[in-house]
Amino acid sequence: METSICVKHQTSIPRQYKNDMGEVYFSHIDKDASDDYVHFFSVREWAKIKRMYRNPVRMASIISGRMLIKKLIAERNGNAFTYKDIEVLNGTDGIKGQPQLYIKGELTDISISISYADGYVCVGISDKAFVGVDIEKVRLFSDCFVNMFYVKENAETINCMNGIGQTEMWCIQEAYLKAMGIGFEVGLKGLHIRLSDLEQCDAKVISSSENGICQVICFVNRD
Q1: Residue 135 in contact with residue 117, Cβ under 8 Å?
Q2: For residue 94, is pLDDT > 60?
Q3: DSSP character for 54?
Q4: Is residue 146 a contact partner of residue 191, using CB atoms and an 8 Å limit?
Q5: I need a surface site. Which of 24, 53, 98, 218 has the fewest CB within 10 A?
Q6: Domain chopping of the chain, boundaries
Q7: What is each CA distance from 73 to 39, 78, 86, in whole angstroms?
Q8: CB-based contacts of 185: which residues, under 8 Å, 6+ apart?
Q9: Distance of CA 140 to the CA centre of its chain
Q10: To the nearest whole number, what is the mean pLDDT of the chain?
């Protein structure tokens, strides 16, 4: 799979970002989020969350991301829906796969994406484009790791980058695959990304880094 991506860089991570394709929000994870939040979720939503009870950090991350989406969708609809009316379920079996948005039991065509890293959560929402978000703690990857996950010509370039550049490239791949709803199924070596300055490209990416965190927002046209 080959795709051309137009990248726009920002000097700091926006806590709220909106454009004509969608909106993205970035926030701290509520580290105290736990069973106290059960009344905000449907039974089938809580089925995923309660599987994390042995991992309170992961559980708090999942709750925080879904609560943020519920809040945003409720506000966009004039609070006409309760938080239980708004469900975030994963596509495969409600537990795994791409997150999907349901309102009053009906699957919507609103694209959503969630990412967590180092105490932060990022969510993307769009009813005009496919959206994928990814946040990662900035790190330097080993040559062996890069060669394992990238096609040869991309690996040679990425091995020469610093930690921010390498993390950004990783986030771009993840965000694009999330937006397309295929995750790692295609295999990163099966994805060839061409970075472009042209507006006419397959996907548009907003990239930023701050305080050791890299954030990438990817919008893919539905046409």
Answers
A1: yes
A2: no
A3: T
A4: no
A5: 53
A6: 1-14+129-223, 22-127
A7: 17, 9, 8
A8: none
A9: 21
A10: 90
**At 94, which amino acid appears?**
G
Best-predicted range by mean pLDDT among 17-21, 100-104, 148-152, 172-176? Answer: 100-104
Dihedral, 197, 198, 202, 207 alpha carbons, nearest 10: 30
Where does the chain show beta strands of DSSP type E?
2-10, 16-19, 22-28, 86-90, 99-103, 106-107, 111-117, 120-126, 129-137, 192-196, 203-210, 213-221
Is residue 125 within 8 Å of residue 23, measured between CB atoms?
A: yes
- Specify the long-range contacts of residues 204-207, CB closer than 8 Å, at least 24 apart: 204/5, 204/6, 204/8, 204/21, 205/5, 205/6, 205/7, 205/8, 205/172, 205/175, 205/176, 206/7, 206/8, 206/10, 206/17, 206/24, 207/7, 207/8, 207/9, 207/10, 207/168, 207/171, 207/172
Residue 181 has which token pair? 């709803």
Which residues, 6 or more positions from 55, have their beta carbon under 8 angstroms from its beta carbon?
none
Report d(CA 97, CA 223) in Å as an integer: 23
Map tokens 């796969």 to a residue.
97
CATH number of this structure's domain 22-127: 3.90.470.20
What is this structure's pTM?
0.91
Q: Are the beta carbons of 2 and 202 closer than 8 angstroms?
A: no
